[in-house]
Amino acid sequence: MGQEQLRVMLVDDHEIVRRGLQQLLDAEEDISIVAEAGTVRDAVSQASIARPNVVVMDVRLAGGSGIEATREIRSSLPETKVLMLTSFADDEAVLASILAGASGYVLKQIQGDALLKAIRAVGRGESLLDSLVTKPILERLRKGKHLVGDEKLQRLSGQEERILAMLAEGRTNREIGDELELAEKTIKNYVSSILSKLGVSRRAEAAAYFVRRTTTPGA
Is the dihedral of CA 46, 178, 102, 195 positive or negative? Predict the structure, then answer.
């Protein structure tokens, strides 16, 4: 009973879906629903107030997309994890979710027990991207620059390339620093150098550039 509860926020523009999720999660002693939202604006504002550990996010929302909401939430609350929940697999949506910083992407057809496991896994900081949905996307993200010979990518050092690949997977500067055992400020300096070498002004543009250039024909 002394176990710390996982704070979860539900974001879906269909109230009936939120009610179903709420009923499922309310039965779990280790999970507490701290907020709900049905629009991008409400999702961002409610997250800033409730500061959930995990956001279960619908890809399509009223007034925008869950991908947009995910990007904003992850930017202001890097410790908050996002699990995307959607009705059907869409390669572009999966890729955009990864770039926005989502930790997981599952289909609404998922069984209740499996969804609970996914929420807990994301809450532990694990990446939970359904291999059937995301394997082709992640393979594209992991292609090396040597496969395409892109002039701008070849300007990057090995460390910069590793950091860019992690940016493309949606990781924050802090998460990258933790993995590479470097200070967050050092990662920020690397990112600035990467942006300069690629001739872009934003990290999302750099990530998108990397993904486009490391996609092999027919992939």
Answer: positive
